[in-house]
Model the fold of this input.
Amino acid sequence: MRASQLTASAAFSSCMPEVSVTPLRGEAVTCVPSTPELSIICVNWNSLDYLLECITSIYEHVSEELFELIVVDNASPEGGIEILAKRFPSVRLVRTDRNVGFAAANNLGFRYSVGQYILLLNPDTRLVGPAIDLMLDRIKTLPDAGIVGCKLLNTDLSISTSSIQKFPTILNQLFTAECLRTRFPRCPFWDIGPLFCENPGPVKVDVIPGACMMLKRDIFERAGLLSEDYFMYAEDIDLNYKVLQLGFSSYYVGEAQIVHHGGRSSSRQKTSQWSTVMTYQAMLRFHQMSRGRAYGMAYRVAMGSAAIVRLILLAITFPFGDRTGIQWAAAKWSTILKWAIGIEQLGASR
Done:
């Protein structure tokens, strides 16, 4: 084991959850197989059907000799994860005794990895062609690349505008709306123009999202892995920021495409108070870390003020508009207002 891996193992030893590990096929064999170039880490929580589709697409499009696949099951209540041993015997399965959060689970998977390159991949994704090969080629040939990502597609194969992001500020958080992002993609508040550019070459961006994020192993270690200060949400933004502070860049590779079933931000699913509060709490933590406590306080005040304005406008339009949609939006902004004034505080577990 290389020295950097020993360092990572030591860092985990004091705070590790109880885990069980299904060994890789052939681990008991005396001869040691060649080290895979790429370690793919998938964290699963109640996404088994998507996970099986994801793994199938990986084996369809990537040579098995090139990679190892590590699945961390984050104590999924739905169960059934044992099917991996039958369907994909070469996958290493790590099972936690509790939901330790997205960042900690990915870090746990990293502890068992050996590849020179690391791909953090959501289970609700599916490869479209040689996406992983294309990203791997780019990260090798771009000397200042710390993180590489791809074009994310929604389930209907439309472009997900979350494929690239700007570092969050109070202003771009106040004015970001999906209808504005798609109508004015080159607006500097979000700058998603590269998603709709015919030239698919690599482009430097602020943030590659954690749904599909390829990193060089040594840079991931130097950045301190994913910060476990975030239970979920914003840990990918935080990592992109730390990689930039190290002097490396994040690159978007538009020629590589992956379907992300959870990527449609405009989907009108029932608002979850828990996820809404966790999202804004994570963003507050990032602002405090990157710009200081005063900026974090200003962000909280700004979001509370925005919530009040939104709720007033929703009340005015309620008699004339889509009442179901307005009720959906009102529930979300009511939760944000309660969070901003300190009424709504949820624990980081589920």
The radius of gyration is 21 Å. Residues 3-260 form a domain with the Spore Coat Polysaccharide Biosynthesis Protein SpsA; Chain A fold (CATH 3.90.550.10). DSSP finds twelve helices and ten strands in the chain.
